[in-house]
Specification:
It is a single chain. This protein has 105 residues and is an alpha/beta fold. It has one domain: ATPase, V1 complex, subunit F (Rossmann fold, 3-Layer(aba) Sandwich), CATH 3.40.50.10580. It has 5 helices and 4 strands. Strands 2-1-3-4 form a 4-stranded parallel β-sheet. The longest helix is centred in the C-terminal third of the chain and has 14 residues. The radius of gyration is 14 Å and the shape is globular. Belongs to the V-ATPase F subunit family. Keywords: Ion transport, Transport. This is V-type ATP synthase subunit F.
């Protein structure tokens, strides 16, 4: 069975521990890059990541998209919602379903 992780600043991700998701508090780009590399080699099927980290690690995320696992899901952090997570969700659903079922009315 695959594991689920969340990475980002502590205040943004601390609630995930309540539902059994492994937390990896990290804020610096270099440290976050090393952590993402390590998690992508381990048995993690899903990695939630704050949008702020996603911006910092955009090149690594592009490379990970080529692989089946892990799936990286961008989530808003306490600093706000950039919309990048929703853009990625739309891209993935268009790819899977063939239509934008998340389109705003």
């Amino acid at each position: 069975m695959y594991k689920v992780a969340v990475m980002g600043d502590y205040d943004s991700i601390c609630g995930f521990a309540a539902v059994g998701i492994r937390m990896f508090p990290v804020e610096e780009e270099r440290e976050a890059g090393r952590l993402l590399e390590r998690l992508s080699r381990e048995d993690y099927g899903v990695i939630f990541m704050t949008e702020a980290l996603g911006e910092m690690l955009s090149e690594m995320l592009e490379e990970l998209r080529e692989r089946m696992l892990p799936v990286v899901v961008l989530i808003p952090g306490l600093s706000g919602n950039t919309g990048r997570g929703m853009e990625e969700a739309r891209r993935l659903t268009r790819q899977a379903v063939g239509a934008d079922i998340l389109e705003e009315a």
